[in-house]
Amino acid sequence: MKQNRKHKFLLFIVVLFMIVPSVNEPFKVFANSNEEELDVSSVENVTQNEAKELAVNSTEQIELLQEKATMDASIDLPNVPNDQENSEEQAVQTPDASELKQLEIQQVEIEKEQKSSVESLDSWMPDKNLQTAVAKTLKITVSELTKEQMQRLGSEASTGQITAKNVASLQGMEYTTGGTGIVLQTTNGTINDLSPIENVRLLQLIITNNDVSNLSPLKGQSLGLLSAENNNISDLSQLNFSNMKILAVDDNHISDLSMVPNYVGMVLARNQKIVNAEIPRNENIKIDSVKHVLNYDFSTKNFSNISNNGLFISNASPYFGSITWENLDLSVSSIQYEFDRQYSFSTDSRKNNKVYYSGVVVQPFSNEIKAAPVTVKYLDEKGTELALSELLTGKVGEAYEATEKIINGWVIKEIHGEARGVYTEEAQEVAYIYERVEGAPVTTYYQDEEGNELAAPELLTGKVGEPYETNGKQVNGWEIIDIPGNANGVYTEEAQEVVYLYERKKAAPITVKYQDVDGNIVEPTIKLAGDIGEPYTVEKKEIEGYSIKEVSGNPVGVFSEEEQEILFIYKKIQEQSANIVVRYQDNWGNKIEEDTIVEGLIGEAYSIESKAIDGYTFKEAKGEIFGLFTKDKQEVTFIYVKDNAKLPITPSYPAKLVTKNSLIPNLDKGKNNKTTFPATGTKQNNSFMIGFIMLAGTILIYYRKKYKKMK
């Protein structure tokens, strides 16, 4: 029997480790025939490693596993035959350090996932005031409040009542599923939905000063007290009155208490404000009164303050009646009455089941008279229709409200007629008068092709949709080359730019002349071309032998449409010129006389004659024997032929002045124009004199012969 127990226990251990998720490395259990005890320490070690791998399981599962693994080691194991010991032996290997480290990392990750999966309190109970009240009841902090903690509510006396104020939502109370019942008091809030407490075991519910209208979630509740003063309740038929002792529903809209049973201890339904559905207007009206509880002992107080001479008539059923009006004025829009009834459920004076029911009932009338329409128009200031008109219809006495239309580019300036009013039998008209929205400005620019401003920009303003027109400006020296496409257009809500492009006009030429004081041209005339308005600068020229005397015209200015002339007037520079070397050679190039140096001033005329040389006859001259002195050196060479006999020398070229203009001014200045020949000492003036005498003699002989022929 004992061995059977050992076999069963061994089988239990094997099955246990087959069920539990296996460890990475198998373990060995050694069953020694000489030792009939289980090696508990090895089993404990293995199961602890398994517990690390099974971190996903709950703490209770891990503890249970360890508890099973550490069972009473004193139980004897059955003897195992030696020949089976090796074959049934299972290798036992404990995880190494790296595997343990990996298990620890996995455990940390699992814990992180568990933490991240925890719902935030606000997600299932959003109202902070309710959170605080529930936590206070449970005597915990708000941070400790969980769905599991909610199950403690009502499980003991200290957790049976929740008191809160200014609560907007009861969401989260649906997790209160434990306990024997709670008292929930939440007042002065904005609660409008009782569905979260539909399945909560409630003993009492106090929801004074909220916004509850639907009591159907309380149908399954067995409330001892319901306090729902100052809400929007109009129907009590969904309540379960089986255990109710007090019903307090003051300041609501309840018109029927007939369903309240007579065993309810106290009913407070005062100050009801009841507005019935509209009924057609008529001269004679009859409506049912509010309905009271059944089986009551009627008090002396009754219906009162019935408007428009109405009359209460009790029905055969004493708990309600009717109120009638006769010959009612058709202009009346509503009628009303007040009621205040205090009574007991029974005539038995020993019972104290009181009912307090009071309030006012308003009966509005619908207006069956069809009113004339109200026409709503949308016009500009000139009366032009901007949008389709609208026709409002209704009944006489009903309110109407016309609405404006959004029209792009327009804003309302004024309203003609009454935008709000009531329908009447007369047609009415409402006109919305619009004016255009102020448009964004249009800026006109006047620029050259490089974007340079040629004239001040112009700013045009107007209202959206109105036309605008721009024109190019007359800019001196410029002409328009491009008229923009948006030169004319309409104002919009966005700013616009109009750009006129210009280029310079071609200007008349400027003539630049260079003359001396006598009007002689000393440098070729030039002409300058350019665009109108373009600046020019004319520099004086350096002319050899001349200096500037004066300038006529504007050497600095701008091109214009008119021709311009600039005249630079020069005068000769009176300075020493270079020498003129006069050489005397035979026809073989041999020097036959000392060279002569002729000197003068730049611009002055000179004339050089050959001289008589004994034994030689003048043949020709090389170089300019007359001309003007310049800065450069000049040479004149006279060529002679050797004589066989001495003959008088006749000059080949008479002495004469080159030009009158170049010679006379020099004579007037008293300049010495005489040239001395060093070899003979004869002055050049003698040559001029001889030539002049010969010329005069020739002329005299010519005229004398002519005169004789005439005789």
UniProtKB/TrEMBL annotation:
Residue span(s) of domain Internalin Ig-like inter-repeat region: 305-365
TM stretches of this protein: 686-703
The organism's place on the tree of life at top rank: Bacteria
Disordered: annotated span: 75-97
Q: Sorted alphabetically, which Pfam families does this protein's record hold?
A: LRR_adjacent (PF08191), MucBP (PF06458)
| InterPro entries per the UniProt record, alphabetical | Cu-Rt/internalin_Ig-like (IPR014755), Inl_IR (IPR012569), LRR_dom_sf (IPR032675), MucBP_dom (IPR009459)
Q: Where is the composition biased (Polar residues)?
A: 81-96
Signal peptide (residue range): none
Q: Ranges for the MucBP domain?
A: 373-435, 441-503, 509-571, 579-640
Q: What keywords are assigned to this protein?
A: Membrane, Repeat, Signal, Transmembrane, Transmembrane helix
Protein family per UniProt: Belongs to the internalin family.
Q: What name appears for this protein in its UniProt entry?
A: MucBP domain-containing protein
User: What does the record give as the organism's lineage?
Assistant: Bacteria, Bacillati, Bacillota, Bacilli, Lactobacillales
